[in-house]
Amino acid sequence: MSKELPPALDLDDAAALLAPLTELVARAGEAILAVNRTVMTVDGKADGSPVTEADLAADRVIAEGLARLFPNIPSLSEERLHLACPPYTCSLFLIDPLDGTKEFVAGRAEFTVNIALVVNGTPLLGIVGAPALGLIWRGLIGRGAERIALGADLSILDVTPIRTRAMPGPGAPWVAAVSRSHGDSRSEAFIDARPGAIRQEVGSAVKFCRVAEGVADIYPRLAPTCEWDVAAGHAVLVAAGGIITDGHGAPVRFGGNRIDFIVPEFIAWGDPTAAGR
Fold first, then answer.
1. What are the distances in angstroms from CA 64 to CA 2, 57, 67, 95, 161?
2. Is residue 100 part of a domain?
3. Integer Cα distance of 245 and 268 in angstroms
4. In the chain, what's the furthest Cα-to-Cα distance?
5. Domain of 219?
6. CATH number for the domain including 227?
């Protein structure tokens, strides 16, 4: 297989990336868990968000792995934004080495390692690892999605196909995955306008995965976030049968066409037929 992927991506080539990228996510998660949260250094970025030595350790693992495995495919990490050369019009790895740093600093388990392969502005393949939960979710558009349970030695204990569920009917309760650390008034208004919601507080990209595996129905985020926060979960959810749109029903695009790689808003729907209702 060529190490560079053509714009018209062959799904067999993309499928061949799943195993090495899954291993890379698992090893990055291992690097995070090796950091002692009680004594680690926590610094602040220019935007006020925290960064820890665990973020940087995971980023090193991923950067070295991608450079070795796929040197001809550009990569963009949250921790190496100064190296970005947007816009990216062909293939791109979008990386968040530790999504949910606030969860990690607080001692909670819902933080993730996210790697997505974006082709022509759309996430095609996504891997979301939750090292403290011993889980990895991964998806390839056109080939489906699955949840992987890992052993302490990073061995694969179980692989379970996952699928989104149909939206409950009128009057029936439905589940909205919401952020524990990043709530916003527009998302709350969106949920309040649809009676019967049960809010499920979840950290990091795990919210996408809960919708992808049919535990939640919708994950609305009608406030700005960044492409590396969204891309991997986007691929997992769509591969599992869902859809992600902006607040007007249009697709969400990736690759740096907006300044600072901002995603102004999105809604992750488990049931595509429910979008826009």
1. 19, 11, 5, 13, 30
2. yes
3. 7
4. 53
5. 174-274
6. 3.40.190.80
Decide if 3 is inside a domain: no
Q: Per residue in 171-221, pLDDT tens?
A: 899 999 999 877 799 999 999 999 999 999 999 999 999 999 999 999 999
Sheet holding 174-179, edge to edge: 197-202, 174-179, 218-221, 266-269, 243-245
Domain ends where: 162, 195, 220? 162
Domain boundary (104, 130, 162) is at 162
Residues 100 and 180 in one domain: no
Q: Between β-strands 50-52 and 75-77, what pairing exists: parallel, antiparallel or unpaired?
A: unpaired
pTM above 0.90, yes or no: yes
